[in-house]
Design goal:
Elements (H helix, E strand, L loop, with lengths): L16 H16 L12 H12 L1 H7 L1 H6 L2 H29 L6 H8 L4 H34 L5 H15 L1 H29 L6 H6 L10 H7 L1 H8 L15 H9 L3 H5 L7 H45 L6 H4 L9 H15 L6 H28 L16 H18 L16 H23 L10
Helix pairs in contact: 2-9, 2-13, 2-15, 3-12, 3-15, 5-12, 5-13, 5-19, 6-7, 6-18, 7-8, 7-15, 7-17, 7-18, 7-20, 8-15, 8-17, 9-15, 15-17, 18-19, 18-20
């Protein structure tokens, strides 16, 4: 049996016996899964929790996609969308927590699929590539949103998105410890920022809407006549915001007692807005409610939250590239597995930044383009979710050795409900969001996601099926 190395502390660093014991257990668990520890385990409990907290990003995700819910359903759609989607996303989180507890290693969804269904390598290959691109899409949408907040305050060009992408790359290059500190700060920033925003709006808003307006009013700027369908279109806002619970798995090899911490982190006036001249519609809401000066404060609170969330998505994508390269599912294996002195897989980080800058160029200042990027991110993530959930539904005995967290008799019902919701969302978010449909308002998410699937399929036929046969163990147990 291979012996755990000690990448979790540098020479001369003093660690307690308990810390050393926990690191040894975590490293041994990784060795049992066939991988030699390469990363220092510098991620604390709060750091791991913060990673998922950043990725879910209630404050920033809700704000960036708010216009989708306002224009498609209004207050009624927002209320029911949040309640319904929160319930089903919680079920997905429970499903992933059970799998993550059994397989606490880098790669997340990709590794889980390969481990649970090793006889179908194409499934793992597709999951890995799709999910890594989904993380990049999500990071781009977050960075673009941050750029739009800056544009709303400073009226600068959308080239700011490039600067935000590059900044995310720089922070990720510094390494695990910096990400852990930042994600810990994010938890408190989000909690405190939410209190600041709610208090400011309650005190300074000139008028309050009635209870009847909040719970029953439907807004429809889509052109569709079916009120039910319009409300469903607004679900994008809730799903986009609540995605990301599984991101903690990407730093599982950098956390102490990952088999416990990772699953724990997995289980967070409309007309004027529609015609706003601000770069992002929620800026108009704050401007109307609290005035120009306080609205800038509110936007800064959300923008900082947005940037920190974007940084963690590039953390996830870079670790995914590392995991794929480790198993010969990604080209340039040596380069993408190289760590700098901060223990960061910098090739994966800057590949994410480069792709992010290219995708940012697609945004030309239209709500349709921005919604397409949000939809592409949401659909790509949900399609990635589908593979491990589907395996747990149709092959319930796919996990032989469960971890500390287990659903027991509730496992199959939870996975089945998650499976149905995931399929429903994937279909819903490729449907046209406006009527009548033309080249200016069609939902281009189907083009983006469809194109991505075609590229992955070609990559598999041309290269993947010859080089990738499944998980590659780096140590003999």
């Amino acid at each position: 049996m291979g012996k755990p190395e000690s990448p979790s502390s540098s020479e001369g660093e003093v660690v307690t016996k308990e810390e050393a014991y926990n690191v040894t257990i975590s490293d041994q668990r990784l060795l049992d899964l066939g991988y030699r520890p390469k990363f220092r385990r510098e991620m604390s409990l709060f750091g791991v929790l913060g990673i998922s907290f950043c990725s879910i990003g209630i404050l920033n995700g809700m704000s960036s996609a708010l216009q989708t819910g306002l224009f498609s359903g209004g207050p009624l759609g927002l209320f029911w969308g949040w309640n319904i989607c929160s319930f089903f996303m919680l079920l997905i989180a429970f499903s992933f927590a059970e799998i993550c507890s059994a397989y606490p290693t880098m790669g997340g969804l990709y590794f889980w699929v390969c481990k649970m269904k090793p006889d179908v390598p194409i499934l793992g290959f597709f999951t890995g590539w799709l999910y890594s691109m989904a993380m990049v899409f999500t990071g781009v949408s977050a960075n673009l949103s941050a750029a739009l907040y800056l544009s709303s305050m400073a009226e600068k060009s959308h080239a700011i998105a490039w600067a935000v992408n590059i900044f995310s790359g720089i922070v990720n290059t510094i390494g695990t410890k910096a990400i852990g500190h930042m994600s810990t700060l994010f938890v408190w920033w989000t909690l405190g920022g939410t209190v600041v925003l709610v208090t400011t709006l309650l005190v300074k808003a000139p008028t309050m809407n009635s209870t009847d307006f909040v719970f029953t009013n439907v807004q429809n700027f889509t052109g569709w006549q079916s009120r039910g369908f319009v409300v469903l279109l607004g679900f994008l806002q809730a799903v986009y915001t609540l995605e990301g619970c599984e991101t903690a798995a990407q730093v599982a090899e950098e956390a102490v007692r990952a088999e416990i911490l990772a699953p724990l982190a997995v289980v967070q006036d409309i007309a004027s807005v529609q015609s706003t001249t601000f770069a992002i519609p929620i800026a108009q809401l704050f401007y109307d409610a609290v005035g120009p000066r306080l609205s800038q404060m509110c936007l800064i609170v959300i923008m900082v939250s947005q940037v920190m969330a974007a940084i963690t998505t590039f953390t996830a994508s870079s670790r995914l590239f590392y995991a794929l390269a480790r198993d010969n599912a990604f080209p340039l294996k040596k380069q993408f597995m190289t760590l700098n002195r901060f223990q960061a897989p910098y090739w994966g980080v800057w590949t994410s930044v480069l792709i992010g800058c290219v995708i940012s160029c697609a945004y030309i200042g239209s709500a349709i383009a921005f919604n397409a990027i949000l939809s592409s991110a949401a659909i790509s993530v949900m399609l990635s979710y589908l593979q491990p959930i589907m395996i747990r539904v149709f092959w319930p005995d796919s996990i032989q050795d469960f971890g500390p967290f287990r659903l027991g008799k509730w496992s199959w019902p939870v996975n089945f409900a998650s499976f149905l919701f995931t399929i429903f969302v994937c279909i819903l978010f490729i449907l046209p969001t406006a009527y009548p449909v033309d080249v200016l308002n069609m939902n281009y998410a189907i083009v983006a996601v469809g194109g991505l699937l075609v590229v992955i399929a070609i990559n598999w036929l041309w290269w993947g099926r010859h080089s990738f046969i499944g998980l590659v163990k780096t140590v003999t147990v």
